[in-house]
Give the backbone structure.
Amino acid sequence: DTEVTQTPKHLVMGMTNKKSLKCEQHMGHRAMYWYKQKAKKPPELMFVYSYEKLSINESVPSRFSPECPNSSLLNLHLHALQPEDSALYLCASSQVVGPGTDTQYFGPGTRLTVL
Amino acid sequence: GQNIDQPTEMTATEGAIVQINCTYQTSGFNGLFWYQQHAGEAPTFLSYNVLDGLEEKGRFSSFLSRSKGYSYLLLKELQMKDSASYLCAVRRTGGFKTIFGAGTRLFVKA
């Protein structure tokens, strides 16, 4: 099973709403990632969790709040977003140790629109 | 700093061979990935190179020269479904950071 699942597939929210994106994997991977991707642009790393601990925060605004409740789940809590935050949000996971073992497997993404 | 360069777009004919180049500059190189991404979908892993040379996997091959900061992805016997963006991504040492290039949009025509 090399599947990473994400819910919801699409999300439309207002600037005052609070919502959450969810990601799940059952490959035993201990690193999980959130990326943001705008149209025709490469994925931009937002956060990395390793062994359920936040390892990298790429200076992401605090209106994005990640959470890793266990080794299989990764959430991204959204609050007071701006229209420019509209994008495809991708979750990925990888193994942790060893060269080449950190190939990232991506979920299908959540397409977020902020009105 | 780091920089990854790929051509923006390429067009090739069904059944042909196409080579997509990637040059990179980074401190602490620890591997190069190629991903395929169809419009509106997630990237899918194609190949990984950490040592110099050619890695072949079916119709797809990837080459790396670390001294030149250069890689290419070779696609043989092109099919219409190969029309997609191809992302070159470089992993740095000392962490989980993988930097993606802007991608090359490949159009395969009949």
